[in-house]
């Protein structure tokens, strides 16, 4: 990835049988013939798809995590289209079992405790009103490694488009601008299972409106325009804030959004084994933050590590032969230096190592929950 901000989406689904009884997705995922397994040392269920998406289990529920989308003109339609494509693909594989949307988590690159506390204390009503139903519990905001995560009700179509635009704009707004938004007075609670903060939304959702919605969208919209978003990226949120598009707490909708052509992202393309001039290369670890590939020439092995922000350029350079000489030179050297990859902080962009330490040591560390 480059320094351009990115947006990530995760959707969770309840899987049911013909009688409406919930099925534990952990019991059926193995039979679905999904993508590559065992590449994420933190998640034994994760299947990485050729598209770059991940299908996994969140306890009993199915989870689809989309590849991060770089922010720019058309990013909202790309997010919504990728979400619909992956949802429909998994639903087709599950039939005759069915999927009901359970929750949506939208992430924006960049994080801090101050930013997350301001989002949840100043913007929670706005985030609820664009996505939550009347009976939804509220909104969750968490500082995650390298990103800010907002969790609300399951959203699709125009609802998801409005949510993505609002969350992206607020997540990229300056701390001072967020602080200038009026406080809502709603109680902010610590979350205990995972580190973060939660605001309950019953009163806001029952009313169906709150002054924070217009103020929050005004700030988010300005930030998006400054960052190069197109008018198409703004239209769903514009209509929802103006009342031209029903809010889910008043009238649940899944109004279609015009799709765009999306192909595999770099997170999917990197999964393909390759034969280059003088060596073969294939992935041995894939997480959102770090990818590791093994390059082999006869009995000689080397490990190419790539940080997320460099992944798109890396895949293009690998396929274009730009990296061939560098990797071949490393494979020709004896392993006297014994460069061992043991920590993700050893990697700045792209680097080559002689040995790979335990893969769990390469995971970014999450904040522990409040006890």
Global Rg: 22 Å
Overall morphology: globular
Mean pLDDT: 94
Domain tally: 2
Structural class: alpha+beta
Total number of β-strand segments?
18
Please describe the structure with a list of short key phrases separated by commas or semicolons.
371 residues, globular, 2 domains, five-stranded antiparallel beta sheet, eleven-stranded antiparallel beta sheet
What does this structure look like?
The chain has helices at residues 75-94, 113-122, 124-131, 157-172, 175-180, 202-207, 211-226, 231-242, 266-269, 311-320, 324-332, and strands at residues 6-16, 22-23, 47-48, 54-58, 61-65, 69-70, 98-109, 138-144, 147-153, 189-190, 197-200, 274-276, 279-286, 290-297, 300-307, 340-341, 350-353, 355-356. The chain is of the alpha+beta class. Strands 1, 2, 3, 4, 5, 6, 7, 8, 9, 10 and 11 form an eleven-stranded antiparallel β-sheet that branches. It has a five-stranded antiparallel β-sheet with strand order 12-13-14-15-17, with helices on one face. Helix 1 crosses helix 4 (157-172), helix 3 (124-131) packs across helix 7 and helix 4 crosses helix 7. The longest helix is centred in the first third of the chain and has 20 residues, at 75-94. The mean pLDDT is 94.
């Amino acid at each position: 990835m480059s320094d351009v901000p990115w947006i990530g989406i995760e959707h969770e689904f309840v899987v049911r049988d013909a009688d409406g009884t919930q099925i534990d997705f952990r019991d059926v995922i193995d039979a679905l013939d999904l993508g590559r397994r065992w590449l994420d040392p933190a998640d034994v269920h994760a299947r990485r798809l050729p598209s770059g998406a991940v299908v996994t289990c969140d306890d009993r529920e199915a989870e689809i995590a989309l590849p991060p989308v770089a922010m720019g003109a058309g990013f909202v339609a790309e997010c919504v289209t990728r979400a619909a494509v992956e949802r429909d693909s998994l639903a087709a594989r599950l039939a005759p079992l069915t999927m009901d949307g359970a929750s949506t988590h939208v992430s924006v690159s960049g994080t801090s405790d101050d930013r997350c506390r301001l989002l949840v204390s100043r913007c929670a009503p706005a985030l609820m009103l664009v996505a939550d139903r009347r009976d939804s519990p509220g909104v969750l905001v968490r500082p995650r490694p390298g990103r800010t995560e907002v969790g609300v009700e399951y959203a699709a179509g125009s609802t998801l488009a409005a949510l993505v635009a609002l969350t992206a704009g607020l997540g990229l707004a300056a701390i001072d601008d967020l602080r200038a938004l009026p406080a809502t007075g709603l109680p902010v609670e610590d979350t205990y299972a995972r580190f973060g903060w939660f605001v309950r939304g019953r009163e806001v959702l029952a009313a169906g409106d709150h002054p924070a919605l217009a103020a929050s969208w005004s700030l988010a919209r300005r930030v998006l325009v400054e960052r190069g978003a197109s008018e198409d990226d703004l239209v769903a949120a514009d209509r929802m804030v103006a009342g031209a598009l029903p809010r889910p707490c008043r009238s649940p909708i899944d109004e279609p959004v015009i799709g765009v052509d999306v192909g595999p992202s770099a997170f999917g393309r990197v999964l393909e084994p390759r034969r280059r001039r003088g060596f073969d290369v294939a992935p041995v670890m894939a997480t959102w933050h770090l990818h590791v590939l093994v390059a082999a020439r006869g009995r000689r092995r080397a490990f190419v590590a790539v940080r997320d922000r460099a992944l798109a350029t890396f895949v293009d350079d690998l396929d274009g032969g730009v990296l061939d000489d560098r990797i071949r030179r490393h494979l020709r050297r004896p392993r006297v230096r014994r460069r061992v990859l043991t920590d993700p902080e050893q990697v700045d962009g792209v680097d080559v190592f002689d040995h790979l330490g335990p893969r769990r040591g390469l995971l970014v560390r999450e904040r522990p929950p409040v006890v």
